[in-house]
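WP5 quarterly update. Target: Beta-lactamase. Source organism: Streptomyces incarnatus. Length: 347 aa.
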Amino acid sequence: MTYDRDRIEALLDEGVRDKVYPGAVWAVGDATGVLAQGATGVLDPDEPDVPMRTDTVFDAASLTKILAVWSSIGALWEDGTLDLDQPLGAFWSEVAGHPLAAVTAQQLLTHTAGVPLRAQLKNLYGTKPEEIRRGVLREQLHRAPGEAVEYTDRAALILGYLAEHLSGQPLDQLATTRAWHPLGMASTRFGPLPADLAARCAPTELDQDTDTHLKGVAHDFSARLLGGVCGIAGVFTVVDDLAAFLRYMLAPATSSWRAGFGSKWATCSLTKQTGDLQPARGLFWHPAPGTTAEEEVWVHYGFTGTGMWISPIDGRWAVLLTNKLYYSRDRELLNGVRNAFRKLAFT
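Structure tokens (predicted):
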């Protein structure tokens, strides 16, 4: 199995020229480490002399669902603290007697729980974190659990609350102690970022209130509303930290690192868990667009322009980090770049 570094660089350079994103950072590797990585473009178009670098910090957006929630839930599952198939109401008093009581963690992880599709936290519950939590955990279901696969941010928000309940720790502390610190992910953390890290953070969307691009503050409104920490989004990271995370996922048993989750969780998660329902899902991960079941390339994306892929069958992982949101919310152009990058990384 090979990859074509020259073609990857040409592809990502073209994305800069076409203003798909101001800049991009990428890496390809296996269980032994990074095979190749690079950066192209600029950190901020307003500062054209400052290049994008491999240590640039990115707003991970929905990669938070993997880095914080998926890893924490996996640790609790491998500890024996959580039964994925037990209805939440059987052991979680906050949801007992409410519609969410009939839902399982497995259904939340496969996006088949039937919870509402949009967050709309402020509109529905106000601005106080405790009232938002209460409202989310008591909300009516959108449809019957197990009926359909429908991606929703609320699945990760609820699982983040569940992880906090079971561990007795805030989500940021739990993720740090069970995943990020053990794996040496020193630059991964929830925002808002301190000034030194914010200075090398890729800016995202223009904030209408300040007329400046968000930098070191989560783009996701739900994350900002909840003080920066929630299951939906809010994590900031760098390519080397994601490389450490994915490298560990490929071979936990032989790794010198020991996160809270291991090979059992990774194998279970990177296996189709949705039966005949479409689109197919593992546990939070899903098959990469344009791949076959035999290829077994799994992916998770972030709205800001981030993405990471992993293929246990090929022993390969890849990361592409961009701040495409600086220019546009339109996903079409970036989707083309992502799919082409994946093909080159897993050729």
